[in-house]
């Protein structure tokens, strides 16, 4: 088992600003991701969501501030989309063996885990949208990551397909014990599975539990009031304490660090 931090944090970001080609994409962002929790990032187009994810995985260097990733943290990543040319003959099995070979038992097991068994010999180009995303998810969890990052991973799926995908993700959180960082526009579906929500628009507009964020004026200014009713039935069990302002005990630890 990988060594874990005693404060249970995998990612800590403090006062981070990111400039891209002279444009300020993110300003003074502070957040953290702790073991086993689901954190959802919401925000309009151009709000810096993908920039935030790319900074966490190391593809972008922040202009200022601190990004601290636990040394032992393994990250799995599911992108918005991955284009595979229809003329390229690559099976699911071969795709899952890139860049590291996997034995047939592992491949069958991981495909069963994501709810798409017996497709290892199918061509990637012939998969349905839902099957394709589940294969990407399977590849992301092959090495049992500590942090699973989903960048609008249900883009192109219908509502039922997206809901099914997120139920699978929540189940993986339970079975793998990994933290999950999600970005999506499907607010009512994603937020209902979240421990915490961060509303982003170039900076952190608001954050906290789904019910706290759903009632925040800045959230309504960005998305309107239509989603609040969908979130009213939100319930979940957790093993950490939420404070009156929507932060949790992990947030307090971070602020004091």
The helix/strand order is EEEHEEHHHEHEHEEHHHH
Strand percent estimate: 15-25%
- CATH fold category name of the largest domain: Rossmann fold
**Inertia-based shape:** globular
The major β-sheet equals: 6 strands, mixed
Low-confidence stretches: 1-6, 227-257
Number of helices: 10
Helix and strand composition category = alpha/beta
| Overall CATH class of the largest domain | Alpha Beta
For the terminal residues, how far apart are their CA atoms? 26 Å
Helix content: 25-40%
Could you explain how this protein is built, in words?
With 257 residues, this protein is an alpha/beta fold. The protein has helices at 49-56, 92-96, 104-113, 129-140, 159-176, 187-191, 210-214, 217-223, 228-231, 249-256, and strands at residues 9-20, 23-34, 38-42, 64-69, 75-78, 147-151, 179-183, 196-200, 204-208. The strands form two sheets. It has a six-stranded mixed β-sheet with strand order 5-6-7-3-8-9, sandwiched between helices. It has a three-stranded antiparallel β-sheet with strand order 2-1-4, sandwiched between helices. The radius of gyration is 18 Å and the shape is globular.
């Amino acid at each position: 088992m990988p060594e874990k931090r005693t404060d249970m944090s995998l990612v800590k970001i403090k006062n981070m600003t990111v400039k891209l080609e002279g444009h300020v994409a993110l300003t003074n962002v502070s957040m953290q991701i702790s073991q086993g929790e689901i954190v959802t990032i919401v925000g309009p187009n151009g709000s810096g969501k993908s920039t935030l994810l790319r900074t966490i995985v190391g593809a972008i260097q922040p202009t200022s501030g601190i990004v601290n990733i636990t040394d032992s943290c393994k990250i799995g990543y599911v992108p918005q989309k991955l284009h595979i040319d229809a003329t390229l003959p690559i099976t699911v099995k071969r795709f899952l063996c890139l860049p590291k070979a996997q034995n047939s038992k592992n491949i069958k097991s991981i495909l069963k885990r994501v709810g798409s068994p017996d497709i290892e010999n199918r061509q990637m180009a012939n998969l349905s949208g839902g099957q394709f995303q589940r294969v990407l998810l399977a590849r992301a969890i092959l090495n049992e990551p500590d942090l699973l990052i989903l960048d609008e991973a249900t883009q192109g799926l219908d509502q039922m397909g997206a809901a099914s995908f997120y139920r699978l993700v929540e189940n993986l959180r339970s079975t793998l014990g990994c933290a999950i960082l999600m970005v999506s526009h499907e607010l009512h579906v994603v937020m209902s599975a979240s421990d915490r929500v961060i509303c982003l628009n170039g900076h952190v507009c608001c954050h906290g539990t789904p019910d706290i964020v759903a009632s925040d004026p800045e959230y309504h200014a960005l998305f309107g009031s239509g989603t609040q009713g969908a979130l009213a039935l939100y319930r979940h069990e957790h093993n950490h304490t939420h404070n009156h302002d929507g932060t949790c005990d992990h947030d307090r630890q971070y602020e004091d660090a």
